[in-house]
Structures are given as structure tokens and as C-alpha cells.
Amino acid sequence: MKKSVAIIMGGYSSEKDISIQSGNVVFKNLDKEKYDVYRVYILKDKWVYVDENNNEHPINVQDFTTTVNGYKIKFDCVFNAIHGHPGEDGTILAYFQLLNIPHTSAPFYQMAVTFNKRDTLSFLRAYDIAMANSVYLNKGDYIHESDILKKVGLPCFVKPNRGGSSFGVSKVYKTEELKLAIEKAFKEDNQILIEQFLDGIEISVGVIEFKGKIKVLPTTEIVSENDFFDFDAKYLGKSQEITPARISAQQQKNVNNAAEKIYKSLNLSGLSRADFIIVSDIPYFIEMNMVPGITTESILPKQAREAGISLQELFGATIEAAIAK
To answer: Of 80, 104, 177, 243, which alpha carbon lies 20 to 30 A from 155's?
Structure first.
């Protein structure tokens, strides 16, 4: 008997449209001989199952079911493709845990921690993971520009503490640019992070659960045409994403060890992608993506293909691992 899988997509953040693209890639690539697949849009104004004729069927939030032509559909598993709130920050996953519905992401607590860049960095310091100097601000805090720049220097990055797809991120070169960058970041989140610029090789590496084992995927080197790996570079082709990365054997070994150590230390599961900057042979951890992009332009699908794993295999194995738990 085929399992019923709800692919949740959309969400409440600026990443809504990217999430819908990711969700539709999952929908296209899941094995329809093995799964009954449903696209479920989680939006601020509605939760709906959208059928292949684009008809909308409301989701009953009491038990996360939907009814079509008088038939009640229950889901055996939820594939989480929501970037940002409420998918990537764990909010909706706590709801699924209460309903005892398996999902493809890590437990809600781990998702909440990794979505918060400051908390992730704080946690990993105990495990001797290299990282850039940083300053954390809440909205309303008095801004001591000289103290901030004394710690992080120039240039530096200003970014929302909880966000993705580079929304609200700025690279600051001059002291007088800092205030505007902070204001921009606060439009996306009421917590922000200001980080030291590291001059090195930007790389990203996927770590996944695959057939009962933790697997580190081939590393991708990112060469942006823009000043940094911003939204246009990520999604509009304004970058080179070279897989496997052009790094030395020692650098590759160090990256693989760091990526696997982070995954295990945080007690993660499901799909993930960790970003690093390599300076000399040391990989400096930047951030963790626990609902990584899986659009046609995204990094993780390219890494899976390089590892000989098709998207059908990748998504199917992720669902089976979730159900097995």
C-alpha cells in the first residue's frame, strides 16, 4: 500500500516563493508508484491542499487532514520544504510531533536552535568549531558603532539572526554604512548578527541521512559575480557553483570532519547544508541550513547528483528515514 506524503511549502517569511519552488521539485521527483503525494500550502491566510487541477481543499488544523469528494485523507509523513518561519524554525514541527505525524526534518528543538544563528554559534563554541568574530543585537539596543567595529573590523557582514536566502544581508565597508545596514537587517528580524569578514574560499557542504548512515556530500565552491553570495547569486545565476570544490585534500578532509562533527554535535537529522569560509586550511563555520534549497538552481541537489544520488533516491530515502523513527 502506498504511503501518503504531504509536501508542505510556502510559509510566512520572505522565502515563501523559494519554498514553493523547492516543494514543487520534491513533488515532481518523488516516486508516484511508491507514494501518494500531496502539495500542501502553509500560508498566513490559509492552509490548503492544492490538487493537480489547482483546486484548493482546506486542511483541518485539528488533525492535519483534508477531505476530497467526501474522502478524508490522512498523511503518513510530512516532507518539510518550508524555508524560514514556521518550517525551518521548528514551529510547525512541534505541531506535527503533538499529532504523532513523522516529518523529514530534525526535531523541533534542533530546528529552532539551528535557525537562530547566534544560538548555533554559541552551542558550537563548546566543540572547538572555528568561526568568525561576531556581535549580536536586539532591536532597540543602543548601537555603539566603534565597539562593534573594534570587534569585527571592516569590511563586515550585517544579517538577520533568523532568516535565509540572503534577505536583509549587507556587506559593510565604511563606518557610515553600518547604521543603514543594521536598519535593513532589522526589517527582516528583530535580532541581527554582525560578523567579521573572512577572506578565503567560500564553500557549502551537504550532510544528510541516507540509508541509515550520516553521509557528507561533495563540497561546492561558491564564486559569486556579486560582492557576496546574495539572493541574485543564489537564485538568478549570478555565481559559479563548482562541485566538487577546487580545494586541497587537506582542506577537504578538514571540511568533511567539521561538517560531520557539527551534524552529530547538534544531534541533527534529515537534510542539511553547512556553509564555511576556508582560510588557509581551516574551515570557519558560517551557518547551518536545515531546510536547504532544493530548487533547480540549489546546491544540495547538485551535490547529491555528484555523489551518484538521484533526487528520487534522495527524497525517498529522507521520507523512509522519517517514517522509520
So the answer is: 243
- The domains located in the chain, with CATH, are 3-104 (3.40.50.20), 113-130+199-324 (3.30.470.20), 134-196 (3.30.1490.20)
Residue 42 backbone zone (phi > 0: left; psi -120 to 50: alpha; other: beta) = beta
Closest CA to 257 of 285, 229, 280, 279: 285
**Mean pLDDT for all residues in the chain:** 92
Q: What is the pTM of this model?
A: 0.88
Q: What type of residue is 309?
A: I
pLDDT in tens, 115-139: 999 999 999 999 999 999 999 999 9
What is the DSSP-derived secondary structure letter of residue 103?
B
In this structure, are residues 96 and 78 in contact, taking their beta carbons and an 8 Å threshold?
yes
Q: What is each CA distance from 304 to 218, 229, 238, 299, in whole angstroms?
A: 8, 21, 22, 9
Closest listed residue to residue 261, CA positions, set 317, 205, 211, 309: 205
Mean pLDDT value of segment 285-308: 91
CA 195 – CA 286 distance, rounded (Å): 9
